[in-house]
Write a structure and sequence with these properties.
- Two copies of one chain form a homodimer.
- The first copy, chain A, is α/β, with parallel strands linked by helices.
- Helix content of chain A is 34%, strand content 18%.
- Chain A has 13 helices and 15 strands.
- The relative contact order of chain A is 0.18.
- At the A-B interface, helix 6, strand 11, helix 10 and strand 15 of A face helix 6, strand 11, helix 10 and strand 15 of B.
């Protein structure tokens, strides 16, 4: 027999560990690999031969891993470049050295490109017996092909819940007090997370990257709201931008090593416009920041189950020795009334490097929010509350492996 | 028979509505009042005769009210001044008009001053048959006499949980990547909320208002942390200040109508110091802002139960016609090993206008966090997870009464 390794990449989510937990559990149900190794910090862990052995994780450890946010194996932003042949050689030689047949890579579209690139490399060089399988995740929900990305639903649930509860807070002072509340969410290129706040039913103005920010229209909308009901609840994506592409939060934008803009501050920028233009004298901004991707104590149960099962599915499909260069995937069933999904696989290169935007036809005109169709798409995803295992009043969590796990020789 | 009215004041919390729910339920168990009215927006609602009738609330509505954050009856910041005799006359005449015998006032130390002032006024003017009873709340936990303030525990639980999960997120990139995470909490004068983050066990540096901010020591501590383990997790109160009293967030401080400073931005100010002094080049700030006082989907069960029972206790004690000018209170039992409380009453003027700070003897030197004694004090308070009634994947909530409730004539 041989071994497999699982690694995680990209930004954390509330359920990326659930997919790892699924792969580990699948191998306990059907031990087709001698060992399930965890590669620390994504592809960097493979390059540096930095592994932990996850094979005999207990059920309790597995359950705790599922409810632990972030990436217990650590993540990386290291992108495998096709011209860096040494990286590919190093990965293959490491897999040979540790007798690793299959690499499961849990991540977003950059990670699916890694899966595709490694598969191309082995095919082009006649290397056999090394396989690469992608498992999807991203809170941004901007992956192609898949109905929705694991991780999105839990962030959506946290965002919608927080929106609802901040709206309660906004309404605490007398009706006559005029006030604007701005909730800022992540979403550099896609408005899914901001749009998910609309599940709460209380969003007055929604600003997403899919539609250019029109200052005049937005301020007019806020002014009207204040006029009618004294309060206005605004949700804005960090990636909100003007027609010419300039981010509202432009003053604070920096680039990350992939050339993606690191944003933040769209809410603050909008607050300043509201104050400058005398639309309202009271504005509060809540930037959900890191909490929206790691507040796992409020996971969506649907999200946890699907993420776990995508891990199971990836492992089970890897019984087929020709299964490589694929990403396991979710499709919403259309043959039944209730929400249900079916699992399938897609070529990783169909997902790699593309971005799926929030459909503009799901946006109401003039920043009024989203359509019923959009609500109907998202609502089933946030259902269910998993039973969280608590310890001393706080959710029990897996210590990040590089702090606690043993490495193997 | 006569009626009673309940009103809420001060900043919202996750469980202030649970106390109102307790008063309503008590009157259903023992209907000593014909009607339980809700006064909208605190004392302003009494002055403006703005009431809703809560007497026959169903059990389901009661349970939903308990899990709804903020103040369903609305709050106010209106402070009754002893020299404004007309206000007192107006309140008494309103109580007479609506045959209201008892005013239950749920709030913090400003509200207890209102209870005390009204009681003094009736005594001084020989007015009988009008009584004023305070029920404590404040997430700040800075009330005197009471072991801990209702509302604190749920905020503490949210803060500690978020700290733990943000710490997971901080550890996602390779060990070598140096990074500081700053979590900013509320707490203008008292460090209770910031200190509660230490329940997570992951706080490296804690900055509270009780000890003057020493830039040199703090930056040195952060530098040492980064040196040893590449990451540093800092928690800072919005009210952190220098020896001379200047707030770290001074640039952004404004005053509210009580002359209290409205703060925010201590985390951002510290981030700038860390960057300017080259302590670390990566810093992330999470300001918990409004969410920390309204994220009721993660209430502490202990907190909900105690808040509800304080409402029961206030109502039950009001059977005694001499019971006025009092606040219902919690004392931790010392005659048993496990955590338990007993309920008693205290004169409202013993609580009014005082602030209880976080004990400096519970702080470790050089911003290292808090002592075991402090942990032992807080840990029992965050225990238990209430079953939240969900609707379409989100917690079901009571619509603020001024938006949905009928007013009475």
């Amino acid at each position: 027999m041989s071994n497999c390794v699982v690694a995680q990449s990209g930004g954390p989510s509330s359920v990326i560990n659930a997919t790892v937990a699924g792969i580990i559990k699948a191998n306990q149900l059907n031990p087709i690999y001698d060992h399930v190794y965890g590669g620390l910090n994504g592809i960097e862990g493979i390059l540096k031969q930095n592994f932990v052995d996850l094979t005999r994780m207990t059920e309790h450890e597995n359950l705790v891993l599922r409810q632990t946010p972030s990436s217990a194996l650590g993540s990386c932003r290291y992108k495998l470049k096709r011209r860096n042949v040494e990286d590919f050689e190093k990965i293959i030689s490491t897999m040979e050295k540790f007798d690793i047949e299959t690499l499961f890579y849990v991540g977003g579209n950059d990670s699916m490109d890694t899966v595709a690139a490694l598969t191309e490399y082995t095919a082009a060089n006649g290397i056999t017996g090394r396989r690469f399988i992608g498992c999807p995740k991203t809170i941004d929900n901007d992956l192609m092909v898949i109905d929705h990305a694991p991780g999105f639903a839990s962030s959506a649930k946290f965002i919608a819940t927080t929106a609802l509860q901040c709206w309660q807070d906004l309404h605490v002072y007398p009706r006559s007090r005029k006030e604007v509340f701005i909730l800022e969410t992540m979403g550099r290129d896609a408005g899914w997370l901001a749009a998910s706040a609309c599940l709460s039913g209380i969003v007055d103005v929604l600003i997403v990257p899919e539609v250019a920010f029109d200052k005049e229209v937005v301020l007019e909308r806020i002014r009207d709201c204040i006029e009618v009901k004294a309060k206005c609840f605004v949700v804005i994506s960090e990636g909100a931008h003007y027609e010419d592409g300039t981010y509202i939060a432009a003053a604070e934008a920096k680039n990350d090593i992939f050339g993606h803009a690191v944003l933040g501050g769209a809410g603050k920028a909008l607050e300043q416009m509201i104050l400058d233009e005398n639309v309202c004298t009271r504005v509060k901004v809540q930037d959900l920041s890191t909490a929206q991707r790691c507040h796992a104590s409020e996971q969506s149960q649907i999200d946890v189950i699907e993420s776990f099962r995508l891990g199971l599915s990836a492992h089970m499909r890897s019984m087929d020795k020709s299964f490589t260069g694929k990403m396991v995937c979710l499709k919403r069933r259309t043959d039944v009334q209730e929400y249900d999904v079916e699992y399938f696989a897609v070529d990783a290169d169909q997902v790699a490097n593309y971005v799926r935007n929030f459909p503009v036809e799901w946006l109401l005109p003039d920043f009024w929010g989203i359509t019923e169709e959009a609500i109907n798409y998202m609502k089933p995803l946030i259902q269910g509350t998993p039973a969280i295992i608590m310890k001393d009043g706080l959710p029990e969590q897996t210590i990040p492996y590089y702090l606690g796990g043993k490495t193997i020789e």
